[in-house]
Write a structure and sequence with these properties.
Blueprint lengths: L8 H5 L5 H15 L1 H4 L2 H25 L8 H17 L4 H23 L4 H21 L1 H4 L5 E2 L3 E3 L2 E3 L5 H24 L1 H11 L1 H6 L4 H27 L1 E2 L6 H14 L4 H29 L9 H16 L3 H15 L22
Antiparallel strand pairs: 1-4, 2-3
Helix pairs in contact: 4-9, 4-12, 4-13, 4-14, 5-6, 5-7, 5-12, 6-12, 9-10, 10-12, 13-14, 13-16
Membrane topology: Multi-pass membrane protein
InterPro entries: ABC_transp_permease, LivM-like
Protein name: Branched-chain amino acid transport system permease protein
Length: about 375
């Protein structure tokens, strides 16, 4: 059993629990830094895709995981960040300015969208945001002079401090760009949760009535959460555009919004780790299914013909299994395993018993 004995205030507010956890994070960071030298271009591209999905998951996690506001419309903000970045690049804005501005523009629009949605809760907010995701398809078509409409847009290599970054030509440079954005967003997220604003997010998630009684401005907190969430999602959308190189109105559909929500649920709601674990599942699941079909074809004979809807069906089954048997997601399961080893032989199953009651203050809503 490993016991952490805190003797200083800084030990309580630092991002890592103890030196052991910090060493694990540093080892993980070292592994992802040297990935271009130990992986071929195909798997490096898949890892890049996972990191982009992780950034998008972190954006949705701010709103849904830590503020408790369900959203099925974040595909709209992915599209907005993607198109804003490309349009700024076409206007001659350097990438070092276009990329941050794309996220900032998306965040401002997200905060404005949150104003009429502040009084909505639960399924009503989900329907409102889903409508945004559906509406963005028509908006892209109607704004053809800027967005390219059905024909779509093409984004070529970008230049960053004299280095040409191309998804296909220099995959290692593009990977490091995505990795740098991922680390910056993650560190910012960690510090956000330790700030008064981050604590107000969690208070609103747990009980709006109790948060308001403690002096939290619920409307302002929701607006800030929506804006920050959309800003991070906009950066992920800009990177998705650079990763795909070609996109149109059918790229960011409502299916992407549903996948994002399922991703953070499977990974573990309310945890930064959950966004990354969910991104690993959604990023590698298509390749796993493809390899599995080929393996089954070789073992049992027959062809490996693509089965329509197989990926969505398997992902849905995984989601149902987690909701029924592990509501805390992959990260929750890991916490149980780690706690079992730390407390053995004193571990008891009731330590992680699912809470079926709710706060009495919520009955006033």
């Amino acid at each position: 059993m490993r016991i952490v004995f805190k003797t200083d205030y800084m030990q309580d507010i630092r991002p890592w629990k103890d030196g052991h956890q910090l060493s694990l994070y540093l080892i993980l960071l070292a592994l992802v830094v040297v990935a271009p030298w130990i992986l071929n271009d195909f798997y490096l591209g898949e890892l890049t895709n996972v990191l982009i999905w992780a950034i998008a998951g972190l954006g949705l996690m701010i709103l849904t995981g830590h503020t408790g506001q369900a959203s099925l419309g974040h595909a709209a903000f992915l599209a907005m960040g993607c198109y804003a970045n490309v349009i700024l690049l076409e206007q001659g804005v350097p990438f070092v300015l276009a990329f941050p501005l794309a996220g900032l523009i998306t965040g401002i629009v997200g905060a404005l969208v949150a104003l009429p949605a502040m009084r909505l809760h639960g399924i009503y907010l989900a329907i409102f945001t889903m409508a945004l995701s559906i509406l963005v398809d028509d908006i892209i078509v109607l704004t053809e002079p800027w967005s390219g409409g059905v024909s779509g847009k093409y984004v070529g290599p970008v230049s960053l401090f004299g280095l040409e970054i191309d998804r296909w030509g220099t995959p290692w440079a593009f990977y490091w760009l995505v990795l740098g954005v991922t680390v910056a967003v993650t560190l910012g997220y960690i510090n956000l949760l330790r700030s008064p604003m981050g604590r107000s997010f969690i208070a609103v998630r747990d009980s709006e009535v109790s948060a308001q009684a403690m002096g939290v401005d619920v409307a302002r907190t929701k607006t800030m959460s929506f804006g920050l969430s959309c800003m991070v999602t906009g950066w992920a959308g800009a990177l998705m555009g650079l990763y795909a190189t070609v996109f149109n109105n059918e790229t960011f559909t409502v299916i992407i919004s549903i996948q994002l929500l399922m991703m953070i649920v499977i990974g573990g709601l309310g945890s930064i780790h959950g966004a990354f674990l969910g991104a690993v599942v959604i990023g590698f699941l298509p390749q796993f299914l493809s390899i599995s079909k080929e393996y089954v074809g070789m073992v049992f004979g027959g062809s490996s013909v693509a089965i329509p809807g197989l990926e969505v069906g398997v992902f849905g089954l995984i989601l149902i299994a987690f909701i029924l048997f592990e509501p805390m997601g992959l990260y929750g399961r890991w916490l149980k395993i780690r706690t079992w080893f730390e407390l053995f032989p004193f571990y008891r199953k009731d330590m992680f018993k699912r809470q079926k009651s709710y706060l009495k203050t919520e009955r006033l809503r």
